[in-house]
Amino acid sequence: MGFLDIDKATKSYGAVEVLHNVDISVEEGEFLVLVGPSGCGKSTLLNMIAGLEDITSGEIRIKDRAMNGVHPSNRNIAMVFQSYALYPNMTVGQNITFGLEMHGVPKPERQKAMQEVAKLLQIEQLLDRKPGALSGGQRQRVAMGRALVRDPDVFLFDEPLSNLDAKLRVDMRTEIKKLHQKLGTTIVYVTHDQIEALTLSTRIAVMNGGYVQQLGTPQEIYDQPANIFVATFMGSPAMNVVPAQVVMQNGRPAALVTLSDGEQAILPFSQDNLAPYEGREILLGIRPETITDPDSADRKSSNIAELINRIDVTEPAGSDTFVSMQLGGRDVISRMRSDVPVVAGQSFTFAVNMEKAVAFDPDTEMRIAP
Amino acid sequence: MSVATQDTAIRTGRVTRTLIYVVLILFALFYLLPLYVMLVNSVKPLEEITGGGMMSLPDAFTIEPWKQAWASAQIGVEPTGLKPYFWNSIKMVVPAVTISTVLGALNGYVLTKWRFKGDTILFGLMLFACFIPFQIVLIPMARMLGLMGLAGSTYGLSFVHIVFGIGFTTLYFRNYYAVFPTELIRAAQIDGAGFFQIFWRILLPSSGPIAVVSVIWQFTNIWNDFLFGASFADASSQPMTVALNNLVQSSTGVKEYNVHFAGAILAAMPTLFVYIVAGRYFVRGLMAGSVKG
């Protein structure tokens, strides 16, 4: 039993089922991020936790109390909305204390709680202003203040950073993470931004098409994606997925891939469990940062494979240079240090850290190794 | 071009502009002429008007016609002036405007934020109320008022105007609330506010512009209504419009044009007043800054 249990939750609109048997158990103090593309059902799931949408079947429990049919205000949750949803006719102070007032908290206590939260979020000087007179970042803080002041069991965040400009978004991201570490509250956070998901969460649920594709720690999601969708959705640039054939080399499985000139290269796997796939086609997943020049290859890795291939395009990006080449007929992106001498059109020796490579079944698209 | 004209879309030369102003001023004079006639003749003794000086400024200025129109002119059988009927109109208009606007706001709130099966059909049916010709409901409404014991009273008139106003006020508020961010309602729900608390604390304070539209529309229509006033009121509850008609149409004695003019202005003043007082709230963007950055 977790702190927040989502137990076989299903949501249908008429005959259309948009969420299918979602099972997630969140421990107290966890930061769970629901991430996925638009329309994957993540916001619907969050609204179901909040009580703003009914559950068609299944159960949601907070602290072992079934929440089906319980009014949002009686769930002891607080929510930060994408648009902040600050009441335009009230001052910042009134916005923050509105929930307490509705729950019958006496005025002196409300004021005290408001001051504490304002101090925590450094918005004390804004308390008498109307939301219309605030900047985007300030509104964001007020929206969080309104959630914090209630001291709820679970915080729900619905894409809270998507309306901020890029720099402010990064700042607020850090701030939310700090706040979570300081307060140790349980948070469920919805975003479509995979970087936000990886940086903030203690666990991630990657969703697509109304299904939870994978639930795990950021490390698990990144290193051992359950399927091709998770592999390509999480990480930027996305993981390269290359068609390859399993062959045996020195009694160990290896991937046979086609280079841009039609020659073939052999990349030995670190895992033995691919042996039964000998002779079969698989999809090989390689993260861009695991393809480097030989000098920068991970020294701790026991399995660096080298291949010589033509460079198609180089994209310098300051700290790194992204280099593309053709592998198995697909564009493959690698991430080099910016001072590596790479020239488009020339041959180059790439070092692939095969310890980090992943293999997928081309039919089911599920991970088969590691 | 100069700074002052930079934000106009169409740039015009001096000649064109002069021409435009001349035409506009002529139109303005044309439209203001009746008001001028009413004003000057309401402050003249009757002999000046009957003597043919309709357009000229008064030789002898007097406010006697205004006093008469207000307090002592013969209306129907009593020499009461328009005063009691003015109060009848006020007693009819204030509750009718208030109640129809509040009900319209409630309807709009429910139709947009507490949606239920068939709500669009219900709204469509309510819209019908905007298109019903008043004449066809006169007799059934008279029967209804009789059954309710409201016939021949200002309450009855108020009731009729409320019923007819709901269609329009619902339309206004529904369309206004349709673009009101639903996230605000959801946030208030999570904060623990109930149905009416959300309405009073969140929605109504943000409804200024549309409430003004609704009040101006309802006030003007109800104050200026003649048909219902003439049909459903008795001698003691007639509104201003009906009394004005009785004043002007009275067939006995001399036609006191100066008194009629003064009476007509008196009857028109409240609507003018509402426009002047409430009109400036039209432009206030009360929703600014509620959502997004």
Helix percentage range of chain A: 10-25%
Radius of gyration of chain B: 24 Å
Protein structure class of chain A: alpha+beta
Nearest-integer average pLDDT of chain B? 82
What portion of the residues of chain A fall into strands of 2 or more residues? 35-45%
| Biggest protein-protein contact in the assembly | A-B, 34 and 24 residues
Tally of individual helices of chain A: 8
> What's the number of helices of chain B?
13
* CATH third-level topology of the largest domain in chain B: MetI-like fold
CATH homologous superfamily placement of the largest domain in chain B? MetI-like
Oligomer: heterodimer
Count of beta strands of chain B: 0
**Number of DSSP strand runs of chain A:** 22
Largest sheet entry of chain A: 6 strands, mixed
Mean pLDDT of chain A: 89
Subcellular location (chain B): Cell membrane
Main location (chain B): membrane
Family (chain B): Belongs to the binding-protein-dependent transport system permease family.
Protein name (chain B): L-arabinose transport system permease protein AraQ
